[in-house]
Amino acid sequence: MKLIVGLGNIGRKYKNTRHNVGFIFVDNYATQNNLKFKLNKDFNAKIALTKINNENIVLMKPCTFMNLSGNAVVKVKKYYKIDNDDILIIQDDMDLDIGRCRFRLKGSSGGHNGLKSIFSCLGSTEIKRFKIGISAPNGEGVVDYVLGVFSKKEYQEIEGIVEESSAIINDFCTKDFETLMARYNK
């Protein structure tokens, strides 16, 4: 069983913000595959279940704010008895140019509060990630920038990655991680 976690903040005011690119990504996957997210209050998350090559997959959007994402992730992990090695976090990354993406096997949070929370709750920084570049702010404060809405041009830059969500998630569930990094880390 695998757990795919799209990171974002709950609430209408955050819907199309840069920090919610993880939600945007898994929402697109759900739409492409006719899946519906359902709120699970015990997990404090929205969950969609599917199968890829006969393996059960849990898609998840934490219903906490970003800096508490780990609380929801650990509940789902424990309930479904998922190994840390079978978790993939979909996240925004200011260190990547907008429209770039990268798989990462392990490492620091890079200042990302959602990752800090997940690492703390899971007790490890060896959690697989798919990072979607949102670029760094240009003179704007970090908080205002990540909570800002994508411009039309910026959204067009990430749209290609979002549209590939089915292929990317299917590849994660069927290929070894080195293959993923070679294919997507350009």
Short description:
Strand 2 and strand 3 form a beta hairpin. The chain has one domain: Rossmann fold. It is an alpha/beta fold.
CATH class reads Alpha Beta
CATH-scheme architecture: 3-Layer(aba) Sandwich
Q: Which strands sit side by side, in order, in the main sheet? A: 2-3-4-1-5-7-6
Mean pLDDT: 94
- Low-pLDDT sequence parts: none
Instruction: Estimate percent helicity.
Output: 25-40%
What is the first-to-last residue Cα distance? 28 Å
- CATH topology call: Rossmann fold
What is the molecular shape? globular
Per CATH, the superfamily is Peptidyl-tRNA hydrolase
E-strand count? 7
Oligomer: single chain
Order of helices and strands: EHEEEHEEHEHHHH
Question: Helix/strand-derived class?
Answer: alpha/beta
Compute the CA-based radius of gyration.
Answer: 15 Å
Which keywords apply here?
186 residues, single chain, alpha/beta, Rossmann fold, seven-stranded mixed β-sheet, globular, 7 helices, 7 strands
What does this structure look like?
Helix content is 37%, strand content 22%. A 7-stranded mixed sheet has the order 2-3-4-1-5-7-6. The chain is an alpha/beta fold and 186 residues long. The two termini are 28 Å apart. The chain has one domain (2-184): Peptidyl-tRNA hydrolase (Rossmann fold, 3-Layer(aba) Sandwich). It contains 7 helices and 7 strands, in the order E-H-E-E-E-H-E-E-H-E-H-H-H-H. The protein has helices at 21-32, 69-80, 113-122, 142-146, 152-163, 165-174, 177-184, and strands at 2-6, 38-40, 45-52, 55-62, 87-93, 101-104, 128-133.
